[in-house]
Amino acid sequence: MNSQPLPRTSPSKLGVSARGIIEFLDQIEALGLDLHSLMIVKSGQIVTEGWWQPYRANAPHLLYSLSKSFTSTAIGIAEHEGLLSINDTVVSFFPEKVEGDVHPFTAGLKIRHLLAMASGHVIDTWPAISVGDPDMVRNFLAIEPIKPPGTHFCYNQGCTYTLSAIISKVTGGTLLEYLRSRLFTPMGVETVEWLESPEGITQGFSGLYLETESIAKFGILQLHLGEWNGDQLVPAEYLKTAHEKHVENFDSSESSDWQQGYGFQFWVCRYDAYRGDGAFGQLCVMIPQCEAVVVCTAALADMQTELDTVWKYILPALSGSFEQDNAGDEELSLRLRNLTSSSSDLAIVDGPLSATFARSATVAPFTDHLLSLRVESSKNGTTLTLVTHDGEHNFDLVASKWSEGTLPSRHQPFLKASLLGGWVANDRFIVEVVWPTSPHRLLLRAEVGIESVFEAKWVTEPLGSAAKSKSVIESVRQNHA
Question: Which fold has domain 11-59+211-336?
């Protein structure tokens, strides 16, 4: 929920081409890109907003690594409050976590190096630090950098996790608690969750859940260099620095938005833009030349194609001074009200009156809690019962309509789920499972036979870091039950 909703207006009133945005939607559909939401802000006002059913405005969405840009913002606030300096060494906050002779590169590692993903490590430390000893900062500091800090870019989740741990060390609370009082509440952002590690540290590098409009607010805050409704929430000088390139990140390429340089947990883009982004298409793109923010949530593998499509269609739509086009505005508005998301085009037929399916021997990650499913004919369609470790969950399926209900998942904390599907042949049943808070959808395929079984398969498989936060997922789930 947003207690301070952003103002809305039609694209034409701010000189934005509605038809250019329609072309963007056409191309997204032609490319088969699975977008979940789109929001475009111009001069502080929302000119475009849409959610592909069953995703919706009031459902917070997992941001994955877009979370990092929020962590960076917290560091800027903490520095302004005198709690730290970005030139402080990391070991100065955790002297108890290093033993014996400290490697010179570790001793010289500063907060600014963590921010720039320039710790001197040459591979991501997360796989190593998140196993064994639960003290992940200790584990991080025990891995000696190969190169001098500040000289080499390596996208490293351990850097951002350690930034979150530093915020906890200097504030006595979590990163989420710190940002809730200093950023989220002042901006009217009420619905926010952020997963923690088993040791009680906010993930920092991932795990943040926000509504689309809240992401857009964050983008506006960045464009305005920390100013919000007359209050300076984040120091302007810090954000100017955060948005600039601090380290080369691969050989320069004019065509890749991953090779323009890296700031302080922000990516430098083409077209004098910058962004926060997260796996599977989560985007918050700031375009200062247009005074615009483009936000997408999604589930797709090719994020460069997603960005290329933004540059090809949305950037020109924002860059001109287009005349009033009421018909174009209305056409776009109608299109945005009728967006729908499905990974399969199912032709539903009549099936058996009832059937029960056991789980197949092949178990997809994060699905071991799904034990069996039962399908029964009903007055309006089909009743599907999914049996899990915690009980039965019923959904009334109607052809071509999303059915709402609750279903626990192993990869994220929220219970609300949407299902679409039915019998596609007399002996085959298929259903899509979507959690509107997650980028990931699950396909359940069942077949009647001597051994009637169902198989679960992810369209895009969740990243493994969620498994590190099972206890926190359960805690968040209780708050939203």
Answer: Beta-lactamase (3.40.710)
